[in-house]
Amino acid sequence: LSSVARQSAVITIIALGMTLVMISGGIDLSVGSVMAFAGICGTTMLAAHWPLAAALVGATLAGALWGLVNSLLITLLRVSPFIATLGTMGAARGLTLVITNGMPVVNLPDSFGWLGDGNILRVVPVPLAILVLLAFLAGFILKYTRLGRYAYAIGSNAEAARYAGIPIRLYLIAIYIFAGALTGFAGMIESSRLMTGQPTAGQGYELSVIAAVVIGGASLSGGEGTVSGAVAGAFLMGLIANGSNLLGVSPFWQQVLIGGVIVLAVAADELRKRRHGR
Question: Nearest Cα to 218, choosing from 237, 196, 233?
Fold first, then answer.
């Protein structure tokens, strides 16, 4: 379980932000590329002898900046979330490759490895401890803050939310920035596990994250979803990946499995809605 927790922590942290995005009726396809970009920003700072705390802040801000870009495309230019984040997925990945010339960032301090592979009191994996704290934060936001309540309202019926006086644009911007910040932080955990900044990191993560959130009960049409469901969905995805590796299943078949899980989850959601609609 410790191994699964370490492996799935990055996906789960990103899924926390994706949960808010999907509850609000949106989607973010750029998370894998943004994670790589943020990881490169943070590890570049570490390689230049910046403190770890500063590098973590830098990576988190880099992710938040891409979240802001996504939100402005969606709210100001009225581009659909799918198209907007598909564009930033390519832009973030391309910019990451341009900055690094396709080469990894190396010569990182040994202490950096503690973030991704260390233990607290020799028992609790550091990524798991971070995940628990962030999950409580995301859960608190969803349940007890205006941002969470309005996310559900916007995702359920954006027009009704607008007539109710909810500043939709402002809250969508906040939601995407929050999701981007979590993705940026996750990029540093991933880089710590690899002990290098990889410009190709995070490829295909968007599918795994979306699958985790959908398995956890979120609807692609918005208005539904929970933090606990996203965590459970991501952990289940981790168990599937770990079990597949132990059984010697090809990673290519794992991608087929993830795609199939998304299709089945979406189909089940549509069937449930039709039954309720009768």
Answer: 233
Helix (H) or strand (E) holding 14: helix 2-23
Residue range 108-132, pLDDT digits in tens: 999 999 999 999 988 899 999 999 9
Q: How many CB atoms within 10 Å of residue 119?
A: 13
Cβ-based neighbour number of residue 152 at 10 Å: 18
30 contacts: CB under 8 Å, gap ≥ 6 = 66, 70, 85, 86, 88, 89, 92, 206
Is pLDDT of 278 > 60? no
Give 53-92 pLDDT, tens digit per residue.
Answer: 999 999 999 999 999 999 999 999 999 999 999 999 999 9
Helix (H, G, I), strand (E, B) or coil at 39: helix
pLDDT category at 51 given cuts 50, 70, 90 is very high
Q: Please report, rounded to a whole number, the percentage of residues in the chain having pLDDT higher than 70.
A: 99
Three-state SS at 165? coil
Using an 8 Å Cβ cutoff, are 64 and 216 in contact?
Answer: no
Q: Which CATH number fits domain 2-277: 1.10.1660, 1.10.3470, 1.10.10, 1.20.120?
A: 1.10.3470
Span 169-183, mean pLDDT?
98
Distance (Å, rounded) from C-alpha 123 to C-alpha 142? Answer: 30
The pair of structure tokens assigned to 277 is: 């609609």
Give Cα 102 distance to the centre of its chain: 23
> Cα 246 from chain centroid?
26
